[in-house]
Design brief:
There is one protein chain. A five-stranded mixed β-sheet has the order 1-5-4-3-2, with helices on one face. The longest helix is centred in the middle third of the chain and has 15 residues. By secondary structure, it is an alpha/beta fold. The chain folds into two domains: 46 residues, no CATH class; 204 residues, no CATH class.
Length: 275
């Protein structure tokens, strides 16, 4: 069922099914700030809860996200060509289609779930940052705006799992395969994952707030390194969708022959030699 404003109003008036609305919202990938906030506010009112929309959304979506099975990627194989291929592509990329998503994901990663669980993933949560951290807002946002995505992707540490690297590499891969994949889900937003399309995620794992994970096969697969996660994502994505560019990259990973991507490697080597 897809809820419309009139359906939410019915719940507000006491004529709708609040449990069904809450369940739908828990897994809904919002695209409208006002609708999401008002819908969660209606659920809180109907349940006679004294809490803000983001607080209730955090509680409900966190529970849904926690129910997704977890696994760990046990793959320590090296793939040294991933860095120069992705980093070299970044050197020549204008990020025409993924730059907005990059900013939205970076800003979302600044915020705890309790402040942003009712915020659409693809809309930068500037106002939430400003309200929550008025004195620090400029220092938090400016680095995201000032440092080009290409620079972040080129400098990514492939033997680590820093959130900023994960997001930049995800957006670079989107440009490489000319499709909006892999998407990135931060925190309890994984509750909105469709359980079908392989994606990236940044989730809490033990003491780590933003552990890198691959969403695939109905599970959250925690990655030990950027290399391991990206390798797995290419494998499951190549199996799940028809995309010639994606298939070509996966073929190169499997064979170890990246000669078709030599222009990217040359661009990477050139920039590395003259930073």
């Amino acid at each position: 069922m897809v809820y419309r404003a009139i359906d939410v109003l019915a719940v507000a008036a006491g004529h709708g099914d609040v449990e069904r609305l809450e369940e739908w919202l828990a897994g809904y990938d919002y695209d409208d700030e006002l609708f999401a906030a008002e819908a969660w506010r209606v659920v809180a009112h109907a349940r006679q809860l004294d809490c803000l929309p983001n607080e209730l959304a955090c509680q409900v979506r966190s529970k849904r996200a926690a129910a997704i099975p977890r696994a760990r990627i046990d793959d320590d194989r090296e793939c040294p060509m991933l860095e120069p291929v992705v980093g070299g592509f970044a050197c020549k990329c204008g990020y025409r289609t993924s730059s907005d998503a990059y900013i939205a994901h970076r800003v979302r990663a600044l915020l705890p779930d309790v402040l942003a669980a009712a915020q659409p993933r693809q809309i930068p949560a500037y106002s939430i940052v400003a309200d929550a951290f008025p004195a620090e807002t400029n220092g938090m946002i400016r680095p995201i705006m000032d440092v080009p995505i290409a620079t972040v992707a080129f400098d990514a540490e492939w033997d680590s799992t820093a959130a900023v690297d994960v997001i930049a590499v995800a957006c670079t891969i989107q440009e490489m395969v000319d499709a909006p994949v892999p998407d990135v889900f931060v925190g309890c937003d994984v509750a909105a994952w469709d359980k079908v399309t392989p994606a990236f995620a940044l989730v809490r794992d033990g003491d780590t707030d933003h552990a890198f994970a691959v969403l695939a096969d109905g599970q959250i697969h925690i990655a030990p390194t950027l290399t391991a996660g990206v390798r797995m994502w290419f494998r499951v994505a190549a199996e799940a969708m028809q995309n010639d560019r994606l298939a070509a990259i996966m073929a190169a990973i499997e064979s170890g022959d990246f000669s078709v991507f030599s222009p990217h490697v040359e661009a990477f080597d050139s920039r590395a030699a003259d930073p």
